[in-house]
Amino acid sequence: MSGFLLHLLRHGAPEQPGLLMGRTDGAPCPTGIAACVEQVAEIPFAAIVASDLGRASAAAQAIGAQRALPVTVDPRWRELDFGAWDGLAPAAIDNDAMGRFWNDPDACPPPQGERWSALTARVSDALDTLPARDTLIVTHGGAIRAALAVLFGFDQRHLWAFDLPYGALLSLRVWRGTPRSAQIMGLWP
């Protein structure tokens, strides 16, 4: 069995980059959308899925319009909810609290925020319901890292080693089954 290709595209730059935007739906900038369209110009896929947040779904809609493909919007591909920190710059948050979060986002989530395990659970569920065909998912850095945790069992130290700037594309080959199996095919910043 050959599996299927899963392309995970981080949304392009929002109008206010560098903030912790989980549930905050920061508007995408036109150059960020254009960068996403360009990033996947040579990548074949048969389906497009996007987070329901505008910074991801706007790029997905632009890609879908160019390819005459419908976009399935799925809120399970949202970014981690940063709770009280949502919409803030990391520099505006207590360094110790931020450090505890980065070291263990499940044990030390942001105040009123989402635990890492909740994010990985919803991304795992979203992965289970994908069609077994080559698919592009336009999503967020946290959801991409959650997919890596689910598919490969990477721990936090490994996940933060991946540089996923705005518009980054991570391509995987995925095989269904228990346990799931996947292979990293490429990462393009």
Model description:
It is a single chain. This protein has 189 residues and is an alpha/beta fold. The protein has one domain (4-81, 114-188): 3-Layer(aba) Sandwich (Rossmann fold), CATH 3.40.50.1240. It contains 6 helices and 6 strands. It has helices spanning 30-39, 54-67, 95-103, 116-128, 141-152, 156-159, and strands at residues 4-10, 47-50, 71-73, 135-139, 169-175, 181-188. A 6-stranded mixed sheet has the order 3-2-4-1-5-6, sandwiched between helices. Helix 2 links the parallel strand 2 (47-50) and strand 3 (71-73). Helix 1 packs across helix 2 and helix 4 (116-128) crosses helix 5 (141-152). The two termini are 30 Å apart. 37% of the residues are buried. The model has no long low-confidence stretch (mean pLDDT 94). One of its GO terms (molecular function) is alpha-ribazole phosphatase activity. This is Alpha-ribazole phosphatase. It comes from Sphingobium jiangsuense.
Topology, pairings included?
Elements: E1 4-10, H1 30-39, E2 47-50, H2 54-67, E3 71-73, H3 95-103, H4 116-128, E4 135-139, H5 141-152, H6 156-159, E5 169-175, E6 181-188
Parallel strand pairs: 1-4, 2-3, 2-4
Antiparallel strand pairs: 1-5, 5-6
Helix pairs in contact: 1-2, 4-5
- How far apart are the termini? 30 Å
Alpha plus pi helix count = 6
CATH class: Alpha Beta
What share of the residues does DSSP label as strand, in percent? Answer: 15-25%
In CATH, what is the homologous superfamily? Phosphoglycerate mutase-like
Number of strands: 6
Keywords: Hydrolase
GO cellular component, one term: cytoplasm
Organism: Sphingobium jiangsuense
EC number: 3.1.3.73
